[in-house]
Amino acid sequence: MNETHTAAATLAFGAADTALGRLLVGATETGIAWLGWRDTPGTRARATTRAGLPVVDDPARLAAALDGLAAYFSGEPHAFALPIDWRLTSPLQRQVLTTLYESVPYGKVVTYGELGERSGAGVPAQAIGQVMGGNPIPVIVPCHRVVASNGLGGYSGGSGVEVKRWLLTLEGALPATLDWDLATGP
């Protein structure tokens, strides 16, 4: 969880083909900084602009993350233990997302309010929902595992709450429904 940034930082991209489409992963020398739901030139440009870093070709930097995503989407219980570069987050986001990353394992869920308490952020559940909506590294930093006290809650990743439902079903946190196919996705 190194938060130190070098003056000559760069951003490298890699892509993972999944049941939810081709995901784009961005990493600096410090760690994973970005995961986008589509690998398109526009997504790459937005990530590059947001990070404000030059892009380099460095497949080795992404290997562990791409291998982890392949394992995760194959249905293998997988705990991501990757270094994270939090440069695209505010101090509040960093506090809450670090707590989520370190304390909510595969197949488990936590409510927005519980995560707020656990993180010591001192903000209401609604603010925790906003932090989840701004998570720059979904799936790896598992914001899909944060649910409302009365249901799934929202999800801004992919095509929305159906992606959240799909991910939680893949992890066994929700029972599969008759019209849901884990092999093909939503």
From TrEMBL:
It catalyses: a 4-O-methyl-thymidine in DNA + L-cysteinyl-[protein] = a thymidine in DNA + S-methyl-L-cysteinyl-[protein]; a 6-O-methyl-2'-deoxyguanosine in DNA + L-cysteinyl-[protein] = S-methyl-L-cysteinyl-[protein] + a 2'-deoxyguanosine in DNA. Residues 92-173 form the Methylated-DNA-[protein]-cysteine S-methyltransferase DNA binding domain. GO terms for biological process: methylation. Gene3D superfamilies: Methylated DNA-protein cysteine methyltransferase domain, Winged helix-like DNA-binding domain superfamily/Winged helix DNA-binding domain. The keyword DNA damage applies. The keyword Membrane does not apply. PANTHER family: METHYLATED-DNA--PROTEIN-CYSTEINE METHYLTRANSFERASE. This is Methylated-DNA--[protein]-cysteine S-methyltransferase. It comes from Actinomadura rugatobispora. The lineage of its organism: Bacteria, Bacillati, Actinomycetota, Actinomycetes, Streptosporangiales.
